[in-house]
Amino acid sequence: MRINLYPFPRIDSDVSWSPTSFLVNDEPVEKDDIAERWDCNSQLSVLTSVQVPSSVIQAMQLSEIKLVLSVSCPSTSETSVEVSYPTVVAQKYSFQAVVTVGGHQIARKLNIRAMLVAPEGIESWLSRRILAELNESINLESWVDGFPTIAMSFEENHRPRAPWSINVEATSLEDPFVHAFRLELNTDNLLVSDLIAGKNVPRVGNALDASILRVLIDTFRRLFKDSGRRQCLDDIVIEYPESVAAAANQASKDFLSRPITETLSLAEHRPDELETLINASTNLLGEKR
């Protein structure tokens, strides 16, 4: 038995979509620059427009055609929708829609879907059958010092009230470092907000360095143990210079003045000494008296 999943004709080939436009705080911004311009206090607007020849609409005997623009964030489960009706100019149906979302509503990524819809018959479930659509996404993560970093309200996203969170997605020592870690900064914390704003907050910066260093060492230790093979770490660092192994080794040298293999030995046999070294190397409690 044959089942046709698309029983109604579409008009994708007859539709002219204009490039999607973006505004941050009412100022135009290129799509690739949004991650650098956006923060939790911003207003991000998404604008789309489309034209359809009147002859196409008339030939298909379409009525009540409209543009539906939706902007959704998978990380926060927020979705905003705008519906636009056409104006007819020069034998063309023109649609334009704008969706604006607050920076506190979104994180990591936005999905944009623009659809031309029209009813089919009298059935309610066919009241929004799709004639044509356009889909795209926006990355909201900025890359700071090789670390994917985002700022967000932990309270509004139902997260524990920590100053930050470091998420690890690495599965092997060879994984690219920039794809394996993500730093999330809690904008509800006043000191963290000052740090994001570029203010000099040594104690917060030092504490963040210590957290990142601990996570790097713990991740390296876990992945090395899980690998099931005592491979030569120097070979991994040479062959995969952008890897988790290379980043952990460099951090160990920069902060603890020793290669990661020696730090791993400390973590296994003298964890108390390693903790003291981390606290000292990051100047955890700030300046001397």
Question: Could you explain how this protein is built, in words?
Answer:
Strands 1, 2, 3, 4, 7 and 8 form a six-stranded antiparallel β-sheet that branches. This protein has 289 residues and is of the alpha+beta class. Helices cover 30% and strands 31% of the residues. It folds into two domains: 12-140, Sandwich (Immunoglobulin-like); 144-281, no CATH class. Strand 5 (66-73) and strand 6 (78-84) form a beta hairpin. The protein starts with 15 loop residues before the first strand and ends in an 8-residue tail after the last helix. The mean pLDDT is 84.
Q: Give the C-alpha Rg.
A: 26 Å
In percent, how helical is the residue content?
Answer: 25-40%
First-residue to last-residue Cα separation: 82 Å
Uncertain regions spanning at least 5 consecutive residues? none
By helix and strand content, what is the structural category?
A: alpha+beta
Number of helices: 9
Report the average pLDDT across residues.
84
- Element string (H = helix, E = strand): EEEHEHEEEEEEEEEHEHHHHHH
Proportion of strand residues: 25-35%
